[in-house]
Amino acid sequence: MRQEIPAYIVFHHNLLYSSIPESHYEYIINEVYYPLLELACEGFKVGLEFNGWTLEKIAEISPEFIEDVKKLEREEKVELVASSYTQAIFPLIPYEVNRKNLEFGIDVFEELFGKVPKVFLLNEMVYSIGTVKLLKEFGFESFIFDWVNAVKGNGWKKELKLWEVAENEGLRILWADTYMTQKFQRFVWGDIDREDYIYFLEKRFSMRPFSLPLYVGDAEVFEYIPGSLNFTKGGSDFRRLRNILEVVSDSFPIRFSLPSEILKLKSNPQKISISTSEYPVRTKKQDKYNVTRWAVTGRDSAKMNTQCYRLYEKVKKSGNKELWKNLCFLWGSDFRTNTTDEKYLLFRNLMGYSLLTAERQTASEKIERNRGNTVPFSVRYFHRGRYFVIETSYHRAVLIKNKGLALKELIFKGKSSQPLIGTVEHGYYEDISYGADFFSFHTLIATQKGEQITDLSSKVDVSYAFEDGFFKVRNLEPINLPFVSVFKEYWFSETVKVVYKLYFKDLYPMSIRLGIITLIPESFERETLFYRTHNGGKEEEIFYLEGKEVKLDMPVNYIVTARGCPGATEGSFTFGDRNKEITVLTDKSQLYTVPLLRYEEFEDSFFFRISHTICERDEVANVFYKGYNEVTFELR
Known about the structure:
7-stranded beta/alpha barrel, 6-stranded antiparallel sheet, 10-stranded antiparallel sheet, alpha+beta, Beta-galactosidase, Chain A, domain 5
């Protein structure tokens, strides 16, 4: 007789789901949420996760639903699972905003239920080290994440039973599983038959799992068709859902359990890591579903995130609770994917109101500028063939005039006598797949029509001036490319700023990458190479690169142009080795960017490049650029 396995289900409730109009909320509560409670009454224990905003809306529309949940929880038929106030992607958002989001969510749970659950379902199941450390600060004891993605690139899989409770950053992990959830959905929707589903489960049981995550996912995908005029199903989904739970109960030695019951089965869970250098921010599902969809794809995600950072800069000075709550709401993930016009306009209107209100409450700051035409450091500059050379007390830079002022080399005199970043020339690598010139601080654009646009074919004249305490160098005339004109400026002081001034002309992009930095391999110690940044937490997270292969800038397929990114949520990204490091600072309230990384090792060398992006492409992207934009990268 096979040993009984604890099985569990967690339904994620989110009325802000991108494709759900407000007019459908009452239907979803009555025809989707209530039938899930009925499953619990029939003996199928379930976990119920809600964000705070959804709970407030349910309490407003159907307060009796809240009372029914309380009753079922007292009877130990359901268990509440926690979330923040809104479903926001913490690894892409500053720490202080994430703290507020948790505070507001906790307030709602305490007001409606008199307590806060100890199990937390990561928003959109997006993981970072900083996110989990923040959950620990707030007293949560465990979190839910996807097994399939957690094991990718990690060696501990062989040391655990399938779906065995583990520990990460001091919190226990209850596992979801992409394949289990997707197979469950496919059966309920009628895409596969019962025999296919049972065969799938048989294979999983043959692995002798610790537990069985039958389903951890959206509630609103059952008995409801998001984004459709004919959005009802007449009860077919719940008939199939109830049927398969009965069949599974009869066919396999399982007992339905609540999340906390599963977590208690392991007294001393093994400590594991989840983030890796290859995937600093992890998500559920396949690689095409990665964190860039909320950063720089979606429905103008980068522009929305720029505005959120602008509001953040104002709100943190005013301390206004209403504006903090608005900011958490506006940073919600569902505004950035398949959002409806209704929700898009809601974002625009609320953002406009919040920015105006914050502006009125925040005293204007007077920016003092050095208007002189001198600088407090030595500067020497000259033309040398196709190069323009700048040497100051702090740096030596060589710009390539016939490559759109791309950077050939940059020496940080306080760090090294050798150039640390610049151009790795054609022929440097023996591997022919790297048989090209790899520049720095150029522009790469791909359009939806497949056009590739770069400023590397542009020959420019140089202008220079002493201004505001900087020695500034730029192209004399704009670089006029299809769909965009570019001014590129280098500002030299104790640091180096590279400023892109862009005027877009009706551009529908696949990707826009700039602020591209290529490391000079012989200037770094490969064995101690690292990068370091914030991913939604208070502290920076450090990732070492020796022996790794990182390809976050590579396409997943012909639709999805990138594989993921760090959040760099406090506007800083640092790379280097044990002897030296460079920090790149960006102002995300000027124009939102995230870094895409490429790292690969060769026999006696390596390739390491950071490309900052303001747009990528996936199946939810709807991005359009027109008019003036400016972005600055400061190196120190």
